[in-house]
Amino acid sequence: MKRTLLKAGVIGLLVSGWVSSNLVLGQSDPSGKKRITDTYAITNATVFTAPGKAGTKATVLIQDGIILGVGTNLSLPKEARVIAGDSLFIYPGFIDGASDAGITKPKDLERPEGFVSSNPADEIAGITPWRSAKDQFSSSGDKVDDLRKTGFTLIQSVPDGGMIAGKTSILVLGSPTSTNLLKDNASLAANFRGSRGMYPGTPAGVMAKFRDVYENAELTQQRGQQYASVAGVKRPEITPTYSAMSEVINGQTPVLFTTPTELEIRRAINLQKELGFNLVLTGLEEYEAIIDVIKASNAKVLIKLETPSDKSIKAQKEEVTEATKAQYERVKDAYSKAIAQAGKLEKAGIPFAFTTVGTKPADLMKSLKVMMENGLSEQGAMAALTTNPANILGISRFAGTIEKGKMANLVLTTDSLFKEGSQIKHVVVDGFVYDYELTSKKKAEANGEKKDSLKVEGNWDYKTESPQGSSGGVLAIAKEGDTYSGTITYDDPSGSGKTSAPIRDVAVEGNKLTFFFDVTASGMTIAVEISGEISGTSMDGTMSIAQIGSFPFEATLSPTLISNN
Amino acid sequence: MKRLNKTFFAFLLAFLPFMAMAQIDGEFVKPRTGKFLLKNATVVTVTKGTLNNTSVLIENGKILEIGTSIAEAGTEVIDCTGLFIYPGMIDSGTRLGMVEVSSVAETVDYADLGSFTPNMQALTTVNPNSEAIPVTRVSGVTTVLTVPTGGLFPGTAALINLNGYTPDQMYAGFKAVVMNFPSSARRGRFDRRSDEDIKKDNEKALKEANDLWENAVSYNQMKKNGAELNYYPEMDQLSKVVSRELPLLIEVNAASDIQNAIKWVEGKNARVIFAGVAEGWRVADEIAKSGIPVLTGPVQELPTRQSDRYDIPYANAGKMAKAGVKLAIRTNEEENVRNLPFHAGFAAAYGLGKEEALKAVTINAAEIFGLADQLGSVEVGKVANLIVSTGDPFETRTQIMHVFISGYRIPLSNRHIRLYQEFLERSPGLNAN
Amino acid sequence: MKKQSYFLAALLGLSIQIATAQVKKGSVLIKNATVITATKGTLENSDLLVQDGIIKQIGKNLNAPSGVQTIDATGKFLMPGIIDAHSHVGLDVVNEATAPITSEVRMKDMVNPFEVGIYRALAGGVTVSHAMHGSANVIGGQNATLKHRWGSIDPQDIIMQDAPRTIKFALGENPTRVHGRGAGIQPRSRMGVEAVIRNGFNEALQYKKAWADYNAKASGKGNTTVAPEYDERLQTLVDILDGKIIIHCHSYRADEIYMLINVAKDFNITKLVFQHTNEGFKVAPEIAKYTMGASVFADWWAYKMEVYYSTAFNAAILTANGAITSINSDDAELIRHLYHEAAKTQRYGGMTDDQAIALITINPAKQLGIDDKVGSLEVGKQADMVIFDNHPLSVYAVPLMTFVDGVKYFDIKENADDQRLKISATEMVEPIFLSGEAHRCMQDTEFLFETTESLFNQKH
Questions:
Q1: What is the DSSP string of C211-227?
Q2: Which member of B305, B336, B394 has the closest CB to residue C432?
Q3: Touching check for A231 and chain C: CB below 8 Å?
């Protein structure tokens, strides 16, 4: 039954995608964004249909968000838009096992008059199993874009909230005009976070309360059955909590427990053993020592796609005592173990996937590569991005591989995915093609503009455009050791002439310069952020003022003034 | 009916000195002075060896004579056969007398508002009738340094003897301006500042300290030149450190802070004493080289770092002493200053040795406080702060049989003992109405 | 249906045994020690043989079976592993301070085997600790009795699985401050504390009856009675009333101690131990007659109003009146030298060596209901023991080795200094904590107070 419902849901979505053209309103589309076709053919690309499969030259044909065919001699329909794939590599779209992208936490409810902290209402205490991630999700969030840019096409969206936050939704990161919903109530999101200042306030209370909710939901169901079959039975009290828990108790909906650490993983497994629900562990960060325990539990596993920062290890001091050295070694050892965990999980035969909750999308691939340099195989990494999450989420019928009839979710790269320098050029989601600009790092290097030769210090003449017109001034930057300081002149907001301010928080990363300065106007201090890319003696960037906006910023390094310094 | 163990009655006999001096209905035993001859004891002088079968004569608050054949005439003879005489122990850092019940704010007087309050006087706030004082002194601790806490310069500490009805009667001749050296460590598990915030706070506090010190130097110079200065009691007090009239007692614990503090005092020509020094063992050689004496403790404490060897707080004093640091021991306690001998015993067992540990609660403290001619040993002419015990005063089972403070014979009673006397065999007992 | 049977099992008081990995059991022969048995006097120059974690023989001239290591303890003192009847070491959470009764909360859920405090306690000779819920609530959570098998990574492996269930109660200032002053609900006074306990037990009786009525009818055809609400909070109180759980009650004043004795009498509860019990000496005859005794501090007093009228002679008075008495730590530092704390009863009350040793061995074992397994050196008992260089009641005593189940977990000569089991992968500079990290009864209640400053001075 579940399956047919799901199918119906998917088909329904696609159908609505078809007919929700604006014709109904008697309007055409003046936005210029309307697609001319929803049929695409990516020709003669290197296609990796599934983890472990070698890449073969083939054409991928998609229509209506579905893969129509993969092969070498497909006949292409006339309406197919052709993307020359000769230099491209195609992978199945990645699936994020648990995601917070696009999620906005619902506002905390106000405590009612006479609120008793020892016995708060469920929804105040963070027990909201009826809530759904889809109601908290917006596809216009920055993280959604960033995640898609990284190759993710499907997510299990996790609601934000307390110990039982609500149900997850499986969503495709597709067109903003669609609800993008693939499966609602996919799992129940739970964690060990207590409610501040009320019961349950600590993980200890949360565990007790979880047992209580579970047992009583079970009893409520039992009373309901009794009520339905026997006359003269007292009407059972049905609460939103117990109703929403019933699918969990019946084994239809698993519990997605956020358990970053070893002890939390054990706590979730203990609850699972006591109560008997289906368990998916998510957000795992520290699990190296208990892989056998996880395996024995049969719980499904989503590890956090993040590796610890190596900043402090790199920053360690050279001249230290033997005792301190021994301490450093222990930290390094802990670090080495942490980055090798994913590989060990793979070797143990646990088909894990990833979660991006709490991560920065820009760092995801970097973290994955660290895992791969430390034991995770390429096939294992691919599986964790595609087929494993599809299996864990129960969506492998239509997601996880490149096959005829599956969803058109693809990642198109310029080179073999994990190769240094490989970049994502297109991401296809639900048949929509997203194009990404390639960065030309190599070109810059070829021109001999090494990072080291970057010249930041000196006097820059700058210009900026704002709705009030253009203005400009001088930005003087000095370098002392590794730190930059300086001043900037600008049009005095209170009248005529120029005034100046010191610049602060100057940061140079690669060829990118960012700094702030404060403008005082009518007693208010406004922080202005400048960020720009330096190339030779010119700088191109933006000037941003919070709550006002961003404006173009251009500057050139003045050669005559340098000698004055 | 009563199932009292026989040993308890035996113990009561040992308690006879307590009983004899304890309160009897309608009568209160007061401390009293006189000419006391402590006869025929083993005298552990600390500075001049251990003397067997020796008597000590006390009069006018001083030790008058030590010898084997002191005339008994006109003296109150206290037979000390089989007993030991030690100098009264000195706890070099407490809050004794400045707090009665720590959770009741109205009774807590060791900290005031503001970070620059060196003019706050511990001595005037000491409550001579604090219940904790008689509880402390029967353990053999006769003298304590009582220290204000709080901000950067929280006040002026004072050394007091644990007998008397006015602070002046109790004052033992040493005061010091207290400084909490700006710390780069966490204040405990409730301190959730980030590393950066801690660093910033530390730098800010150091700058504040430097500015205050510079002002104090100027203030002192102007004062010396006879300038008429505005009323500024805080600065006036700190300037006394600049002029060396008062020593500076610097509370400092983390290794890097100790190193910073050593640098900070360089060239300041102040009389500096370090207190706490929990991580002294990490930089013991540097402390020794600086020549700065140390009041360390508590000994019975947890290591400052998770990775530290479990017994390092017990061994800290021993390691510093071995490196050549001059040190005394403190409990940093209030109501349980009575545990000083046990802190010393632990330090002794974990490397300091019994002899050095005894010095650390007697003569070393006296020397650090500049009172070696008055306190810290059993010598003729010194203040009669003496204890008579059944043995080693650090050993837990040892009973203290007599205590003399400034020549006063102290009644061996306090709330704890009185409650024992009342309730050992409660009447009515279980069933009587 | 599987769920159903579990549920019924829980109602019947059959706790689900979580399968545990086999814990390590050791074999060792200790030769020529002064053996302090705690129950059968002190044996000079004697040997003690442990096989598979159990004491097999105590006597002279014992020989080591093949493969069993011999430790020469000539001139050394061997005593039973020290038992701390009140500790919070090894717990991630101490207080679920959000309701006056939280009997459903289990400290066993929160055991953290990685806490260095466990090793530090071992280094002080402590082999068993009673990891308790805090004292914020009138009826707090259920406690865990731990065996200090240091190095275990599974919390189940340091839980003493064969120890009976115990629960924390708390009277006086802490629950009235947290709930009355903090949350604005009862109890605000010691009257309220009594009322909360009596209300709880009476509700538990109703709960028990409701389930009994339902179970009697449930199987009948056409039954119209529905199952009552499940409430582990009340179920736990039912278990107390049924004698399945030992109460360990944080208490200070004589009046509140006497109150709880009366409440216990009214509800036919006999498994009752008082914790801290600073004024226990005032009602020592009653504690001796009606309870399993008192677990007290050696000398703590005056840190709050309700301990102002204390005496360090408390243990001596309680013992003299026949109450089972133990000395506890409730503190991560104190737990490191309970042998010394016990010795203080010799200064304050002249207790004999045997009596003082019992305060930290067989007596706390009795109060935790594990005296048939640990707490003394007797043939057949679990081989938890400590070797000291001096008599353990001497201030100069230094623990040299500590064994749990015959396995040596602490050795002063062999063990590395850095005993951390968990190391941050990113933190090169270790934090320094100056005021110690002593666990406290009121831990995890910070949020209830405007400033955490007040907690610096707030001990137990």
A1: HHHHHHHHTSTT--PPP
A2: B305
A3: yes
Q: Which of C400, C108, C174, C187 is nearest to C307 (CA)?
A: C174
CA distance B255 to chain C (A): 10
Residues in chain B: 433
Residue of A119, A275, A327 with shortest CB distance to C430: A327
- C340: CB partners within 8 A, 6+ apart: B342, B346, B396, C393, C395, C397
**Regarding the domain with residue range C81-217+230-374+436-448, which homologous superfamily does it belong to in the CATH classification?**
Metal-dependent hydrolases (3.20.20.140)
Measure B383 CA to nearest chain C CA, in Å. 27
Spell B238-261 as b/e; 16+ CB within 10 A means b: bbbbbbeebbbbbbbbbbbbbbbb
Cβ separation A119–C423 shorter than 8 A: no
In chain C, residues with a C-beta closer than 8 Å to the C-beta of A267 are 109
Mutate to test the interface with A, among C98, C112, C133, C221 (most CBs of A within 10 A): C98
Instruction: Please provide residue C107's backbone torsions phi and psi, each rounded to the nearest 5 degrees.
Output: -65, -25
Distance CA A30, CA A38 (A): 18
Residue-range domains of chain A with CATH: 36-93+400-439 (2.30.40.10), 96-106+120-194+254-398 (3.20.20.140), 451-562 (2.40.128.120)
pLDDT tens readout for residues B169-191: 999 999 999 999 998 887 666 67
Q: How far from B175 is each of A56, B130, B159, B240, B286, CA to CA, in Å?
A: 88, 21, 6, 11, 26
Closest CA to B256 of A313, A331, C432, A314: C432
Domains defined for chain B, CATH in brackets: 89-375 (3.20.20.140)
Confidence bin at A324 (pLDDT 50/70/90): confident
* Neighbors of chain C by Cβ distance (3+ pairs < 8 Å): A, B
Q: Which of A116, A208, A309 sits opposite C106 (nearest CB)?
A: A208
Tell me the shortest Cα–Cα distance from A346 to chain C, in angstroms. 21
Kindly list the domain boundaries of chain C, sorted by start residue. Answer: 81-217+230-374+436-448
Report CB contact under 8 Å: B336, C299. Answer: yes
Which among C97, C229, C423 has the least Cβ separation from residue A331? C423
Provide, as residue numbers in chain C, all residues whose Cβ is less than 8 Å from the Cβ of A125.
Answer: none
pLDDT truncated to tens, each residue of chain C (460 aa)?
Answer: 344 444 444 444 333 334 445 789 999 999 999 999 999 999 999 999 999 999 999 999 999 999 999 999 999 999 999 999 999 999 999 999 999 999 999 999 999 999 999 999 999 999 999 999 999 999 999 999 999 999 999 999 999 999 999 999 999 999 999 999 989 999 999 999 999 999 999 999 999 999 999 999 988 888 899 999 999 999 999 999 999 999 999 999 999 999 999 999 999 999 999 999 999 999 999 999 999 999 999 999 999 999 999 999 999 999 999 999 999 999 999 999 999 999 999 999 999 999 999 999 999 999 999 999 999 999 999 999 999 999 999 999 999 999 999 999 999 999 999 999 999 888 877 888 876 444 456 766 655 543 333 333 444 5
Torsion region of A114: left, alpha or beta (phi above 0 gives left; psi -120 to 50 gives alpha): left
For residues A310 and A307, what is the distance between their CA atoms, to the nearest angstrom?
Answer: 9
CB C169 within 8 A of CB C260: yes
Q: What proportion of chain A, given as a percentage, has pLDDT over 90?
A: 62
This complex has an ipTM of: 0.94
A contact residues 152-181, partner C, Cβ 8 Å cutoff: none
Compute how many other C-beta atoms are within 10 angstroms of the C-beta atom of residue A417.
22
User: Which residues in B lie closer than 8 A to residue C418 (C-beta atoms)?
Assistant: 307-309
Asked if residue A486 lies in contact with residue A461, where contact means CB atoms within 8 angstroms, the answer is no
**Entry pTM:** 0.87
Residue A388 has pLDDT above 50, yes or no: yes
Three-class SS state of B236: helix
